[in-house]
Amino acid sequence: MECCYWAPSRLPPAFSHSFSRGSGTERCYWTSPTIWRLRKRQRAYTGYDVPRCQKMFVPGFGEASPEAKAARNLQNFFTYIAVKIVLAQLESYNPEAYSELMEFISRNSLNDGDKFCGRLMRESSRHQGLALRILEVRSAYSKRDFEWENLKKLAFKMVDESNTRLMRDYVLETSHMENEG
Amino acid sequence: MECCYWAPSRLPPAFSHSFSRGSGTERCYWTSPTIWRLRKRQRAYTGYDVPRCQKMFVPGFGEASPEAKAARNLQNFFTYIAVKIVLAQLESYNPEAYSELMEFISRNSLNDGDKFCGRLMRESSRHQGLALRILEVRSAYSKRDFEWENLKKLAFKMVDESNTRLMRDYVLETSHMENEG
């Protein structure tokens, strides 16, 4: 399926094709005036509006979606956070378990949270208890403690601030070069 | 500040100390029965409940918060998505710009989105146009197209499913070994 966003006017292969919004595999954004004229005409004939996809086409995610990829990364992040929480708890009241977990972390990467927990479970019966605690903490943390609304706000703010900073730095740099030249 | 979650009963250093919820630098969860008894007694005396922090303590984030770290990672992810969107648009109607961007990507890592865009801006005037488009797309995508509610649901689901799978696999593995032994 071809999509247009900042692209020249382009007619869709089939005007009333279905969109798979839920899975996020195919996304498009029809902005062409021709499409709007066609849509208006179709509405006049049929009495209802056809379903419309207002999203930009994101290629390369196959059966998954960008949200699924981001969720998978967040899952690994929650495992990392859970390990930090459990370590902080153990440090004060169970230094032996703390040392054991620290030693295990020094030998095993935390990049893949599930692999880490799987290996921790199979290390020894004591490690197994720690792994079960990490699993429970990551679930509780993601559902209760993590501030999802705050994440959204911070991401919007960061993107806006970074965009402004990048453009300002470039303008300052080039105007400085022009003044020197 | 010491915190307890699954930890033995522990009295806080000061019962009515303030909590920095907004910044997320210090988080704790008082579960001790002693605390609840003290809280009940204090409520009976003062007529109101003291402010209570229901979060687990996450160390190691300094002035930032886990949400800020996750938002920074998402920002890089949005830059990666924006590059994919722009490439898909260019491929069909501007093959020359597509090749130029692809060549630039082969030489520059996309891990740090801001660094990538900063370098792209300074490559040439044509590349500068592409960089500005990427900045605009990542902002539009994060605000309009990215399904934040879906991200949350998927993350919950993935954590739950992974926890179940890890425990089931371990139980199956050990019961198999026990049966053999």
TrEMBL record, chains A, B:
User: Which SUPFAM superfamilies does this UniProt record tie to the protein?
Assistant: RbcX-like
Record keywords, A-Z: Carbon dioxide fixation, Chaperone, Photosynthesis
Q: Which GO terms describe its biological process?
A: carbon fixation; photosynthesis; ribulose bisphosphate carboxylase complex assembly
Domain of life according to the entry: Eukaryota
Molecular function per GO: protein folding chaperone
Q: Which residues form a coiled coil?
A: none
InterPro entries given in the database record? Chaperonin_RbcX_sf, Chaperonin_RcbX
- What name does the UniProt record give this protein? Chaperonin-like RBCX protein 1, chloroplastic
Organism of origin: Elaeis guineensis var. tenera
Organism classification:
Eukaryota, Viridiplantae, Streptophyta, Embryophyta, Tracheophyta
